[in-house]
Design brief:
With 277 residues, the chain is mostly helical. The chain has helices at residues 2-20, 23-47, 52-70, 72-76, 99-103, 107-122, 126-136, 138-143, 148-174, 186-196, 201-220, 222-227, 233-252, 255-258; strands at residues 86-88, 104-106. Helix 1 runs parallel beside helix 3, helix 2 runs antiparallel to helix 3 (52-70) and helix 10 (186-196) crosses helix 11.
C-alpha cells in the first residue's frame, strides 16, 4: 500500500501548502494523511486479522483513488506553491561528488538524516528491542509482558506516516506540483529496496541513494540517445530503477539467497494469543 499512501500524502501536502502558503504545514498534513491510512490499515490487519498482502493492495487502491478524486481540482488548475527551503552547509557542500547532493539541497534531506539517526538510536533502546521481538516472535514478546498489538498499531501507523511524508517530499520539494500518479511507481521501488536492505536502516539509506542515482541518470544522459541515433534509448534509462527492483525481487526467491533476504519471522502473520506455535 505504500504507493497509495505516498500519493495521498503528496496530494494532501500540496493542497495544504497551496491553501496556506506554508510548506511546513503541508509537510505535516502529508504525514498526518499517511498516519490516517496507517490507522485504517492497522484496524483491518491487526484487530480484524485480515490478510495483510490483500489488504495492502486495497490500501494502495484507496490511497490512489482518494488522491485522484480529491486532487482533481488541483490537477485541473496547476499553480505554483511555496517550496520547502534549500539549505547549504558551507564547507561540507564542497566535498567532491557528494557535497552538493547531500549538503546543498532541500531541507527535507536533513530531515531524512535526523529520522535515520532516530532509527539507529531506537535500535539501542528497550523500545527497539520490543519492536524487534514483536516482529520476530510475538508469542515470546507477549509472554514477557510486551503489548504486541499496541506495538503493531504504533509501528504500522508510524511507517505509514513516513510514507505520507515521502509523498509530501515529492510534491513540495522534488517536483513541486500535483498531477495524478505523481509517485510513478516509487512506492513499489521503496518496497524493493527494503527487501534488498534486509529491513535494516543504514543499508536502506544507501540503496535509496543508489536508486536515486538511477532515476537521475536519464536526465544526465539526455543527449546520449540522440548521439547513438536512437531517441527511444531514453526510455531504457527511465526503466532502469524499475528493472533493478524486479531483478532484485526475482533474485530474492532463489533457493540459495532466500534465507539471506528473509523478512522478520512474523511479518504478515496476524497474532492471536494462545494460537502461536
Amino acid at each position: 500500500g505504500v504507493e497509495g499512501v505516498m500519493l495521498l500524502g503528496a496530494m494532501t501536502g500540496f493542497a495544504t501548502t497551496a491553501a496556506t502558503a506554508n510548506p511546513w504545514l503541508g509537510l505535516g498534513s502529508a504525514l498526518l494523511a499517511g498516519a490516517a491510512l496507517g490507522l485504517l490499515y492497522a484496524v483491518v490487519v491487526v484487530s480484524l486479522q485480515a490478510d495483510q498482502v490483500v489488504s495492502g493492495l486495497a490500501l494502495g487502491f484507496v490511497g490512489t483513488g482518494l488522491s485522484a478524486v480529491l486532487g482533481a481540482p488541483l490537477a485541473a488548475a496547476p499553480q505554483k506553491i511555496v517550496e520547502l527551503p534549500q539549505l547549504s552547509i558551507p564547507f561540507l557542500q564542497q566535498i567532491p561528488l557528494l557535497g552538493r547532493a547531500l549538503f546543498a539541497t532541500s531541507v527535507i534531506v536533513y530531515v531524512a538524516f535526523v529520522l535515520l539517526l532516530i532509527t539507529k538510536l531506537l535500535d539501542r533502546t528497550r523500545w527497539g528491542l520490543h519492536i524487534t521481538a514483536v516482529g520476530e516472535n510475538p508469542a515470546a514478546a507477549d509472554a514477557m509482558g510486551v503489548p504486541v498489538l499496541r506495538y503493531r498499531y504504533a509501528c504500522t501507523i508510524w511507517g505509514s506516516a513516513l510514507a505520507g511524508l515521502a509523498g509530501g517530499c515529492l510534491s513540495l520539494a522534488i517536483t513541486p506540483m500535483w498531477v495524478d500518479d505523481l509517485t510513478a511507481g516509487q512506492g513499489w521501488i521503496a518496497v524493493g529496496l527494503v527487501v534488498v536492505a534486509r529491513w535494516r536502516a543504514i543499508p536502506a539509506a544507501w540503496i535509496a541513494l543508489l536508486f536515486g542515482v538511477l532515476r537521475r541518470l536519464p536526465l544526465e544522459l539526455q543527449g546520449m540517445s540522440a548521439l547513438l541515433g536512437n531517441p527511444k534509448l531514453g526510455y531504457l534509462f527511465d526503466m532502469l530503477p524499475y528493472l533493478g527492483t524486479i531483478v532484485v525481487l526475482v533474485i530474492r526467491t532463489r533457493p540459495g539467497v532466500r534465507k539471506y533476504f528473509a523478512p522478520p519471522s512474523a511479518l504478515g502473520i496476524p497474532y492471536v494469543r494462545g494460537m502461536q506455535k
